[in-house]
Predict the structure.
Amino acid sequence: MPAPAHIAGNPSWLTAQQRELIDLASTLGRERFAPRAARWDREASFPFDNYADLREAGLLGICVPQAYGGLGADFATYVMVAAEIGRHCGATALTWNMHVSSAMWSGFIADQLEMSAEQRADHERCRAVHYARVVQEGKVYAQPFSEGGSAAAGKAPFGTVARRADGGYLVSGRKIFASLSGAADYYGVLCTLDKPGATQRDAMYLAVPADAPGVSVDGDWDPLGMRGTVSRNLTFKDVWVPDTARMMPEGLYFQAAMRFPHMFATLSPTYMGLAQAAYDFTVQYLRGEVPGMPPVKRRMYPTKQVAVAEMRIKLEQTRALFLQNAREARVDPDRDTRMRLYAAHYTVMENANDIARLAIRTCGGQSMLKSLPLERIYRDSRCGSLMLPWTAELCVDRLGRECLYEPGERDEVIE
Ligand SMILES: Cc1cc2nc3c(=O)[nH]c(=O)nc-3n(C[C@H](O)[C@H](O)[C@H](O)COP(=O)(O)OP(=O)(O)OC[C@H]3O[C@@H](n4cnc5c(N)ncnc54)[C@H](O)[C@@H]3O)c2cc1C
């Protein structure tokens, strides 16, 4: 059996920390997550056992700054580790992303943004509370921002509101598709500060305890793919949280969204991993090496060789853009970098499903039996380009506009 390809292509350029964490994710993925993945998918249940492993390995704190006891991983490190996890269990990687993003946004992203000295001191005080929960208590954060309207697409203020009250806030509203609903300890809710004339600039990011009075989970969860994410609906009814619930100072989320757009590209690593998994499976299958299957080889047919070559080409194209994106993440990227980011995100999301489609076509009928992982990979990979704020459609919208218009340029209205 050939050694499986490294998720980062050639690992020789990686830092010691990157190599170590990707190896750790690979071991956990192969030995623990992959064997359990069918269960979460079949039951549409949350992968609690995988979270116990992530906790024990210190990976819940991967993006918590080292000064607060975390591993202090940067953007590139995180996305490669996440892709390696996605290679073995899509639902674990996707939900872990929601958790990790809370530390990433409040951590190295917030560190690069403008704040007054007073805001900075306040942010240190608040994030110390959140990081201690993650690092010392192993708590898990979710990230519900979707509401079913235009807010999650970044085109309107969030309908969920936070009203200042008694040294904190009262949160009210409803979120849909909240991954980790009923499983997370805290919901990192994106909402709007309740004040006259509030706009998107007044977005807030508040951690609401899952067991606070006024929080409820509803709706069923029986989707096509990513079933282990358990993304049900959340309702917040006058839920009081203290001021330390702020994951970012008031107004900072808007600045982050404008100045650090790569923060929205953390959903694609999961799908990079799924693309790799579909390819890995195909090679194993055509070589007659899938555990539990008769050792029938199919690799000698030229059509299979052509198809697997096509998959590898697509996979390497996807990886190249994925890694380029990982390296380019920074505050205030220039316009070309931003356009490359849309192109990379679109490519990963669309190609993951296309590579999985090719895998099933190439391996054939027996490969899509429920006893094998490929049909789950195919269904999971379908979900990527549906995810806001950067669905495949919205990436195309943004890219098309930016290709053809300079900032501020408008068309003349012809009467
Ligand atoms: C497995 C899974 C897990 C998820 N987990 C989370 C989570 O943890 N947290 C979370 O907040 N969300 C989560 N989501 C939700 C996701 O990001 C979307 O909000 C959700 O899929 C709703 O999509 P929709 O297609 O119904 O959206 P709709 O609002 O109906 O939009 C349909 C499509 O129209 C386009 N569109 C929407 N608004 C605009 C606009 N203003 N201008 C132009 N085009 C627009 C977009 O391409 C969009 O795909 C998850 C989704 C999935 C599938």
Summary: The two ends are 69 Å apart (CA to CA).
